[in-house]
């Protein structure tokens, strides 16, 4: 199993998705089996389309974004409204599942 790298930031619109897409694009161009996920997302799923564009056919929308909330609020707020807790181990399990079974396209 390869490495799992988390790209995090402190706010919306700071460039996490653009940076991640750029990194995955570069790695895949070099023949490295890199995949991108956005485990938590709420509101628009436009970021998923960006990530899928650099890894065409590699992951479905549900695989890129396993924890999606319809409300257009911060994912943490959506989790609290749904009275839901998602442990880090569950997020890592999703990432490991995708990484284990997905060859480079």
In short:
By secondary structure, the protein is mainly alpha-helical. The chain has helices at residues 16-29, 46-53, 61-64, 75-81, 88-101, and strands at 40-42, 67-69.
Task: Describe what you observe in this structure.
This protein has one domain (16-101): Rossmann fold. The mean pLDDT is 85. It is mainly alpha-helical. It has a two-stranded parallel ribbon with strand order 1-2. Helix 1 packs parallel to helix 2 (46-53). The protein has helices spanning 16-29, 46-53, 61-64, 75-81, 88-101; strands at residues 40-42, 67-69.
Main sheet summary: 2 strands, parallel
Shape: globular
CATH homology-level superfamily: P-loop containing nucleotide triphosphate hydrolases
**β-strand number:** 2
Number of domains: 1
Strand order, main sheet: write it out. Answer: 1-2
Annotation keywords:
105 residues; mainly alpha; Rossmann fold; two-stranded parallel sheet; 5 helices
List the helices and strands and how they pair.
Blueprint: H1 16-29, E1 40-42, H2 46-53, H3 61-64, E2 67-69, H4 75-81, H5 88-101
Parallel strand pairs: 1-2
Helix pairs in contact: 1-2
């Amino acid at each position: 199993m390869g490495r799992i790298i988390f790209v995090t930031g402190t706010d919306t619109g700071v460039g996490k998705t653009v940076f991640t897409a750029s990194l995955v694009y570069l790695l895949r161009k070099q023949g490295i089996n890199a995949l991108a996920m956005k485990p938590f997302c709420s509101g628009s799923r436009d970021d998923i389309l960006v990530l899928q564009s650099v890894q065409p056919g590699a992951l479905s929308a549900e695989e890129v974004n396993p924890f999606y909330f319809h409300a257009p609020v911060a994912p943490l707020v959506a989790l609290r409204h749904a009275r839901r807790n998602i442990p880090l181990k569950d997020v890592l399990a999703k990432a490991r599942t995708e990484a284990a079974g997905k060859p480079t396209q």
